[in-house]
Design brief:
The chain has 546 residues and is α+β, with helices and mostly antiparallel strands. It is built from 23 helices and 23 strands. A hairpin with a 5-residue loop joins strand 22 and strand 23. The longest helix is centred in the N-terminal third of the chain and has 20 residues. The structure holds glycyl-adenosine-5'-phosphate.
């Protein structure tokens, strides 16, 4: 069963054990920004390297049993601003927001009712006046609330500001339609409305109860200026996705490398979104890292590759050690598709803050030919593809010259698996977090050894009698191959406890017996069992297990 406090415990562990700190903490932090500490950066790099290896250096074998073509790229965060006009981000990448003129707070239009239900103090208090809910209004009871708790919690709610007027027209309205009991949201809207005839029903502010303004788009792209002059002509944007870098370089890659359709271009890098409500630790941040691959293919083959990447990406997440039961696919409904997408499926994870539900981890989108066509139109550069192999095939099939010409030149379709690197860090932390009352630390991080930030702790049992010298020598040898930590101080139990908390899979201890027979103990994180082996055999022993 999900433990409601688990997320708090993970956040606190991340701070205490050097994984993740709030950005600019000494100045009180900055909402939506995080710093990765000495262990956090190791964990993040391990995931990053595994994705790169699996996508670029050693990509999956294609459906026909042959290797596929894939190249990597690393493009600028700031591109020509026309990029974002062509991509659609300048016009559509915005959240509709509603502002409360009374208290100045803003809320995402589609989240107002959710915030009212889950976070609003006055709403929670008012609901108790309707419990059990009958659909009728109890005027004296509501008046009592308005003059007491309501005044303190929701000073700008119509019911509180002008209770007599609000309640009298509400009573008229409810009583004149005895057969149509209003729903709870309708009643709450009525209680937030003073002049129904003039304004219609109002949505109350979750903070102060005042009527929220109309929804207005709030742009999610961060803006800056390039050059000395800070005017509209010099405005630039921090990229909100890495993907556009791949589209902008499509022609360069075709012209300068040996890839042929179908092929992929992969990129890992920072993206920035001025998220309205950054939340759930690093899940939704304003600066984050993405791992995105754009797979360019013939339009007739897009459906096949969509299914291929869907299966491959799920396989990769499972390979990180994420339990099958904590991962699932979710197809996007038509009305939630991004402006560029024909079809999207999310890989979702059961986060502690969504459980028993799931939340987004990676999106796999069929972008059709949207991006290349848009950039072709806006840049005036040809971004179609001449498919020589297809031309030869069509000729061999005896097709007419016109047909061969028309069909062998096309704008490729794109399948895009887009995942968050920083979100992957969160998933591995949640997945690894294991409470265990049997051990002094009370918990350990059960990372798959490959992803553990530190692979080996190397300790002399005591910091004397020749043990530190032997331990240090072993440390210098082993660190050539694995990330090791040498720690000669504190009681051995405390050192093991710390290694458990950071998820180190093996700890080697040099003790009194080492001095006489050259053996060391190797402690296993998950079982706490220790093997004693000859020091010379340590590298081979570890190679088998890491
Ligand atoms: N190029 C397509 C694209 O960017 P997206 O679904 O908006 O699609 C892809 O983002 C992935 O990037 C998400 O599945 C998520 O893992 C990560 N991501 C998006 N916004 C994020 C944020 N504000 N903080 C952390 N990760 C985010």
């Amino acid at each position: 069963m999900p433990d409601a406090n688990v997320m708090e415990k993970i956040v606190s562990l991340c701070k205490r054990r050097a994984f993740i700190y709030p950005a600019s903490e000494i100045y009180g932090g900055i909402n939506g920004f995080w710093d990765y500490g000495p262990l956090g950066v190791l964990l993040k790099n391990n995931i990053r390297d595994d994705w790169w290896r699996n996508m670029v250096e050693c990509p999956p074998i294609g459906p026909d049993g042959h290797p596929i073509d894939m190249v990597g790229i690393d493009t600028a965060i700031i591109q020509n601003p026309k990029t974002w006009v062509a991509s659609g981000h300048a016009a559509t990448f915005a959240d509709p927001m509603r502002k409360c003129p009374a208290c100045g707070n803003s809320f995402r239009a589609d989240q107002v009712w959710d915030i009212l239900a889950k976070q609003s103090r006055w709403f929670d208090s008012l609901l108790q006046e309707f419990t059990p809910f009958t659909g009728r209004i109890d005027t004296p009871r509501l008046l009592h609330w308005a003059q007491g708790k309501g005044k303190r919690l929701a000073p700008n709610l119509a019911l509180v500001r002008n209770p007599q007027v609000t309640l009298s027209w509400l009573a008229d309205r409810v009583n004149s339609y005895p057969d149509q009991s209003p729903t709870l949201p309708q009643l709450v809207e009525y209680l937030a409305t003073e002049q129904y005839a003039a304004t219609g029903p109002q949505t109350p502010c979750p903070e102060c109860g005042g009527p929220l303004g109309e929804a207005r788009p709030f742009k999610l792209m961060f803006e800056s200026y390039a050059g000395l002059v800070q005017d509209e002509d010099h405005k630039v944007y921090l990229r909100p996705e890495t993907a556009q870098g791949q589209f902008l370089n499509f022609k360069n890659i075709i012209d300068t490398t040996r890839v042929k359709i179908p092929f992929g271009v992969a990129q890992i890098g920072k993206s920035f979104r001025n998220e309205v409500t950054p939340r759930n630790f690093i899940f939704r941040s304003r600066e984050f890292e993405q791992m995105e691959m754009e797979w360019f293919c013939h339009p007739d083959e897009a459906a096949k590759w969509y299914e291929f990447w869907k299966a491959e990406r799920m396989k990769w997440w499972r390979g990180l050690g994420v339990a099958e039961a904590n991962l699932k696919f979710r197809d996007h409904e038509k009305d939630e598709l991004s402006h560029y997408s024909k079809m999207t499926v999310d890989i979702e994870y059961k986060y502690p803050f969504t459980a028993p539900d799931f939340g987004e981890l990676e999106g796999i989108a069929h972008r059709g030919c949207f991006d290349l066509t848009q950039h072709q139109t806006h840049s005036g550069q040809k971004l179609d593809y001449f498919d020589q192999e297809l031309q030869l095939k069509l000729k061999a099939e005896g097709k007419s010259e016109e047909e061969v010409k028309a069909r062998s030149r096309y704008v490729p379709n794109v399948i895009e698996p887009a995942s968050g690197l920083t979100r992957a860090v969160l998933v591995l932390l949640c997945e690894a977090y294991t409470e265990d009352a049997q051990r002094p630390s009370g918990l350990f991080l059960k990372f798959k050894p490959k992803f553990a930030p530190i692979k080996l702790g190397i300790f002399p049992l005591v910091n004397k009698d020749g043990m530190p010298e032997m331990a240090e020598k072993l440390y210098l040898d082993l660190r050539q191959k694995w990330t090791c930590e040498y720690d000669p101080k504190q009681a051995i139990g405390k050192r093991y406890a710390r290694m458990d908390e950071i998820g180190t899979p093996f700890c080697i201890c040099i003790d009194g017996q080492t001095l006489t027979d050259q053996t060391v103990t190797i402690r296993h994180r998950d079982t706490m069992q220790q093997d004693r082996i000859v020091m010379d055999r340590v590298p081979a022993y570890l190679s088998e297990r890491l």
